[in-house]
Design a protein that fits this description.
Order of helices and strands: EEHHHH
Shape: elongated
Strand order of the largest sheet: 1-2
Structural class: mainly alpha
Number of helices: 4
Largest sheet: 2 strands, antiparallel
Number of domains: 1
Number of strands: 2
């Protein structure tokens, strides 16, 4: 299912959704957490991205696993496969970190809605700090994943 799309490796196409949605989730959730007066404008985007980003990361990981099997079947050497395994490890971590950010963002959005029950004063700022930290971790792992993937594909080509 995740192997090809119209004859192209699905991973090469699906990875772009994760590369866009995960950093966008980091940006919008940070904005939602920090810019409290704009929450009513960012809530729908934060909630939507909190679901879309982990789904995109999941699809990228699944298609990457399929692509790895194709590389093995075609007899690629251990040097390239080691790079793919490193890339895959970062991709899986990106998935888990994006899921964590998505869940915390949804909790923050749910608890800060106008009709939500009154929060303890410390909970909102605590969740905001967690969102900001998770957003930074997400951006870092998307960078590491993309960098190792690009090195696996392009190192030695140019």
């Amino acid at each position: 299912m995740f192997r090809e799309v119209m004859g192209l490796p699905a991973h090469a196409l699906l990875v772009h959704a994760a590369v866009v949605f995960v950093p966008l989730l980091a940006l919008v959730s940070t904005g939602y957490a920090v810019l409290t007066r704009f929450r009513s404008r960012l809530d729908w985007a934060a909630a939507l991205l909190a679901v879309a980003a982990p789904v995109a990361a999941f699809l990228a990981v699944q298609s990457g696993e399929e692509f790895q099997q194709v590389l093995i079947a075609k007899g690629y050497g251990p040097e390239i496969l080691e790079k793919v395994v490193e890339h895959q490890g970062y991709g899986e971590l990106s998935l888990w970190w994006s899921l964590a950010l998505g869940v915390v963002t949804l909790v923050l959005v749910a608890l800060t809605r106008p009709r939500a029950r009154a929060l303890p004063r410390w909970l909102g700022p605590l969740l905001a700090v967690v969102v900001v930290v998770l957003a930074a971790v997400n951006v870092w792992y998307v960078y590491l994943t993309g960098d190792t993937g690009a090195q696996a594909v392009w190192q030695g080509v140019l």
